[in-house]
């Protein structure tokens, strides 16, 4: 199941390290949903969602509100602040597109989602791991960064390997490629105008930060995973002491999600 325009897809279908498979039809991830029409909207309605966990800031949610879905509770849990690393990078790029190392800054965003923003995410994981809340969808604006972090942590908690989890995260590049390429080309033209050159002559170093903002990179999610291990030692310690998911909750979640 895939709705490309909203980066909407099922989190299930992946094998775990112990030979089981993540069930489909229970957890979904996406970007904003308000523009879905016709068959795409029918797919969304057909998911039978009990819960949507909206990870966006209030202003984002107000600009692109969720469509009304019968029987679906929307829970807003804003997980990032207005001055996060993406905002810092965007502000710097407005005056100098090559001013700071964007990839390092975005990797810090993912690292700090574990290190300094985890308290914002605990409610998200409490909701997502509650089988009584399923089918559940979690989303942000693009469905790649905040949503990618949540999806990555959930898959690792279910026992999916880091390699397969990162590959799933990178699917957003494929799903959203036409949109991403249009935005990258727009940035290229703006940079060319600023430099007084043709778009085709823009040096690659001037596009590093643009590409860091737009595209998913394996190093980003890997930075989150490395921080879990650096700060908590093991994933079991992280889910118990970091996320506050006790043995009963994680057991029920795994029973519901694994076949």
Number of strands: 6
Q: CATH homologous superfamily name? A: Protein tyrosine phosphatase superfamily
User: How confident overall, as mean pLDDT?
Assistant: 91
Count helical runs. 12
Helix fraction, binned, reads 40-55%
How much of the polypeptide forms β-strand, as a percent range?
Answer: 5-15%
What is the CATH architecture assignment?
Alpha-Beta Complex
What does this structure look like?
- The protein is of the alpha/beta class and 259 residues long.
- The chain has one domain: Protein-Tyrosine Phosphatase, Chain A (Alpha-Beta Complex).
- The chain has twelve helices and six strands.
- The protein has a six-stranded mixed beta sheet, covered by helices on one side.
- Helix 4 runs parallel beside helix 10.
- It is globular and about 60 Å long.
- The mean pLDDT is 91.
Summarize the model shown.
This protein is an alpha/beta fold and 259 residues long. It is built from twelve helices and six strands.
